[in-house]
TrEMBL record:
Substrate binds at N43, V44, E45, N46, I47, S48, Y49. It comes from Pseudomonas antarctica. Transmembrane segments: none annotated. Belongs to the cytidine and deoxycytidylate deaminase family. GO terms for biological process: nucleobase-containing small molecule metabolic process; pyrimidine-containing compound metabolic process. This is Cytidine deaminase. Its EC number is 3.5.4.5. GO terms for cellular component: cytosol. GO terms for molecular function: cytidine deaminase activity; identical protein binding; zinc ion binding.
Amino acid sequence: MTIEERLMEQAKRAAQSTYSPYSHFPVGAALLTADGEVVQGCNVENISYGLTNCAERSALFSAISQGHAPGSFRALAVYAPNVSLISPCGACRQVMLELMAKDAVVICQGSDPAATRTWTLEQLLPGAFDAF
């Protein structure tokens, strides 16, 4: 099993833990740390949608809170079973740009595995605001 396949399997598991009673749109994420550990995240909704946290940010924030260094994350897999393909929202793209390694990849999959896409951060957020 490739690292990408391993990450996607972990993202699928994470999607089972989602709290999405309003949108019914589960999303799971799996983040690869510099030392090879995988940290999961899932979307957690709130009735006040602005307080909702996406799976991608949940994984990144969990990894940081567990002591992993910002800027060292190598890859992130994102899975959403209710659409053929998922891609990160703008807020997640900006957070990924700051917290992941500059050469990191983001692997996205929905219900159609044939539609799986892998992007670089530059592809996801060209011309991004980057203070570093």
